[in-house]
UniProtKB/TrEMBL annotation:
Residues 22-32 have a biased composition (Polar residues). It comes from Amphimedon queenslandica (Sponge). Residues 7-17, 40-52 have a biased composition (Basic and acidic residues). Residues 1-52 are annotated as: Disordered. This is Uncharacterized protein.
Amino acid sequence: TWEGETDSSRDPAEGNSRKGMTGSSPATQYMNTEKKRKKSQVEEARQCVESV
């Protein structure tokens, strides 16, 4: 879970700098979907930890 949290805290800055450079290009859209998927994976991991 800690690794996932550091990932999500690092992501916003990367996403912002990419948006500034490329606008809403396919690459940016891909990054956004990846971010959402990562977030849901982290949430699932949290739920698993809580249930244990």
